[in-house]
Amino acid sequence: MKKLLLIGTNTVHTYNYLELVKDYFDAVLVITNEKREGIDTPVEIVDFKLTVKNIIRTPKQIREIITKFKPTIIHIHQANSVAFFSNLALGRGPKIPSVLTTWGSDILLVPSQSFLLKKMVKYNLRKANAITSDSVFMADEIKRIQPLSTPVLIANFGIGFTPPKHVVKEKIIYSNRLHKPLYRIDAIIEAYKKMKQHPSLQDWKLVIAAVGEETDNLKKIVQTAQIDGIEFVGWVDAETNAYWYAKSSFWVSIPTSDATSISLLEAMACGCIPIVSDLPANREWIKDAKNGSIVNDVTGDFLTAAMQQDFKNAAEINTQLIEEHGTKAANKAKFIALYDKLLN
Predict the structure, then answer these.
(1) pLDDT tens-digit profile of 41-95?
(2) How far apart are CA 264 and CA 251, in angstroms?
(3) Cα–Cα distances in Å, from 140 out to 60, 134, 137, 251, 341?
(4) Which residues contact 336 (CB under 8 A, 6 or more apart)?
């Protein structure tokens, strides 16, 4: 009997992964930090906050859950405190194969925040029987932080929908990353302002989805500068998000740090031409001026520069890339092969 214990925070990514692999197992249990509506998989709640109290309490709780559930595979998401508490729990229990999936910030940001946090990440990487990453760049960074004798599996969770049909492309640039400093939505607005100064580009529109701590300030910037053609559509559901991808000609995302973004893959699948910051993970998918635009200077007129692309050719390249490497089926096969290897 194959039994999966999935350990991760209460985010859409954890449950997207659950949907990807759950039918491979006879039973699944999720350990997370908060209940989520609409989930029929059994869930146990623990506290993943990195406190002195939790260093004792949380591993004990996880250990008790493991003893009761008796999983054949443990899959941990993120090499932060989630993996740390889980590995402390596993240290005193039976030898159960464990997989660690890294998400980006846990490898690209957390180790640089303090010496102790870096030690924690290194410990988590050492303890895993298998590690997965959604980009070659992050896999290389994992090996730099903690040299490994086993390869890192490169796999993502795949796009979560079938691209809408019969939606006509319009002169729309779509942004749907969170309104946090990391994603530099203010720089996108400034670039759009520059683009609107070109007479031939006056009819283009910028649609900004999502919300966050900077939403009010971003709206104030647009209002104060009196920039026409920008629409804030707020937090959108999956169907509406897919509609905006399908309707938009370009998709823009210029964070300061990122692994492979599922939003990037979704945009590519829907025929958007990506405009992305110059990050190693983005360069694994986008070749500048071929199937998207790589932004080196986020203070420049980069939206105007992106307009010079061969739109039809770029869209065809992106469709093929997604079919080969970005679908759920392609990535599910990779994870199932990994489980088969560990179980056998």
Answers:
(1) 999 999 999 999 999 999 999 999 999 999 999 999 999 999 999 999 998 666 8
(2) 8
(3) 33, 11, 5, 27, 23
(4) 21, 24
Residue 82, domain member (yes or no): yes
Do 282 and 194 reside in the same domain of the chain? Answer: yes
What pLDDT, in 10s, does the model give residues 247-283?
999 999 999 988 888 899 999 999 999 999 999 999 9
Encoding tokens for residue 109?
Answer: 């940001």
| Contacts of residue 122, Cβ cutoff 8 Å, sequence gap at least 6 | 111, 145, 146
Quick: pLDDT tens for 104-135.
889 988 999 999 999 999 999 999 999 999 99
Question: What pLDDT, in 10s, does the model give residues 191-219?
Answer: 999 999 999 999 999 999 999 999 999 99
pTM here?
0.78
- Give yes or no: residues 175 and 151 share one domain: no
Q: CB–CB of 183/177 below 8 Å?
A: yes
Q: What is the CATH number of the domain that holds 190?
A: 3.40.50.2000
- The amino acid present at 227, given as its one-letter code, is I
Domain that includes residue 107, residue range: 3-156+328-343
Per-residue model confidence (pLDDT) at position 12: 85
Q: Which residues on adjacent β-strands are paired with residue 30? A: 6, 43
The C-alpha atoms of residue 206 and residue 195 are separated, in whole angstroms, by 11
**CA dist., res. 167 & res. 115, Å (int):** 51
Give the Cα separation of 229 and 246 in Å (integer): 19
Residue 162 domain flag: no
User: Do 221 and 288 belong to one domain?
Assistant: yes
Domain total of the chain: 2
Amino acid at position 24, single letter: Y
Nearest-angstrom CA–CA distance, 21 and 27: 11
User: Would residue 292 count as lying in a domain?
Assistant: yes
Both 235 and 176 in a single domain?
A: yes
What angle separates helix 328-343 from helix 311-325, to the nearest 10 degrees? 20
